[in-house]
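In response to a reviewer's request, we include the raw inputs and outputs for one of the modeled complexes. The two entities were modeled together in a single run.
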Amino acid sequence: MKNGWEAVIGMEIHAQLSTETKIFCACPTSFGETPNSNTCPVCLGLPGALPVLNWRAVELGARAALALGLKINEVSIFARKNYFYPDLPKGYQISQYDKPFSSDGILTIMTAERDDQGRPIEWKPMTIRIVRLHLEEDAGKNVHEGLPEVDKFSYIDLNRAGTPLAEIVTAPDFRSSWQAYDYVNHVRRALQWVGASDADMEKGNLRCEANVSVRKIGETGFRPKVELKNLNSVRFMQKAIEYEINRQIEAYERGEEVVQETRLWDEKNNCTRVMRSKEEAHDYRYFPEPDLPPLIVSKEWIEKIKAEMPELPDAMRDRFIKDYGLSFADANQLVSEKSLAEFYEQTAKLSGSPRTSANFILSELLRELNNAGITVAESKITAEKMAELIKLRDEDKINNIQAKEVLAEMFRTGKSAHEVVKEKGFEQISDVATIEKLVEEVIEKNAKQVEDYRKGNQKIFGFFVGQVMKASQGKANPKVVNEVLKAKL
Amino acid sequence: MDVRKVAKLAHLEITEEEVAIYTPQMQKIVAYVEQLNELDTEKVEPAIGGLTPEGQATEAVRKEDKPHQTLGQDSAISQAPDAHAGYFRVPKVLS
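The model returned the following structure tokens for the whole complex.
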């Protein structure tokens, strides 16, 4: 960042909760249905229709809140946020305002600045305040693509209207675009980990907005902030924030002012542009939703949800470092996704080799998974099969190159490691007596070279190793071959 | 009482004459409701959900997460003033 300036960034995330039905009616939340087919009087906003709270949305909201270090409030209130937009049939969104479902969160994330190639420089812990996580309904969708006279008309699909969302708001605690980037990734993984949300930005079930301002280091107040929208991936978000920080600093240095406004990320031109300025800012006139009672949860209920929570990724990462002697980078990568972390732990336990398991999973298995574009849970490889392979390698029954080949075949066919090793004839020969026999044959056939070697030509030792390996069709254990050759020559 | 602002928020167009008529009327309405503020409610719990037992807590009215029959596309758009290809159609809005 430019000398003397610092960025002040706050984040808002909307995550779709993974329910079967909408938050205030029984319409399914299924994606990709024909327009307006998943609708009923409640989500269409027809007169007289009344909302009833979906309890599953509350449970998932609670899991999300706990995964992010928030406190669940025993009493919370739904409120109407009033504005006009065609995708909002009631003319208001049911949300929460002064009494949100959860608040006062403290969250520790790992973050790193990046070098020119975008590689992390040094991971450090950072604590941020999460102001609130509240429950609300999503709006519908305006569609223009492939429809006639789009210069005159907007087309509305209300299938998404009423989908349950958790809105997660942080304090303005971030000081760089990468901190915001690492935060969103942290939240995304946490929500997936506890099953609260699919949190897939490409599918639109996780959306984020950034509030960005800058100030001179040492200033305590805030300058006008710009709200960034249309951030369709975490990377675009990071770029948009970076662009915005620089734009604002440059404006101030030219002696201009920064106005409070909403700007969109323009993917094509790699810049932000104005969406609406403060003059048109909304007055939402929040008031308590009279059609819904207060949302009351008991202490016992909160305790029950806490008891059902899985071990969270950061705790698991620290345990991997402590119990299995893994590096931070390796452990961190293993907990990037829940099924991978669980797969690793099972493999480590079954094989008794946590280090080899980590190396193999992170290098070989991850490459196969990435190439296929699937998670380990979706692959044909089980922890049992993986552990079998690790054992074969650890016992030197197969060498590294063979192990890689076996894994690729296991990945493709779902066969066990033993099956593949047998089919490929990879079983390594480590039996000393067998190797001694091979060595003796080689010595017998190559009398001249033996004489050379014994006269002091150490260089041709490799020749003998090669001959023995050839005689064993590549199956002899090179370590044993070396030992036997040295003894016999 | 800024009647112009209220009208703008409600997307209503009003004339200067109407502003002159509505302003005292609305002032009167607000003053009437304002009387409630004279009561001391310091020790009264807000009855946000109403005064019925169902209104006081959510515990009793939990909805299960099970899909029911929807209206379906045809019924959903049948009452719309304008529809096309299964969509509600409205005058163009800028996103």
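As requested, we also summarize the result in words. Chain A has 16 helices and 16 strands. The radius of gyration of chain A is 30 Å.
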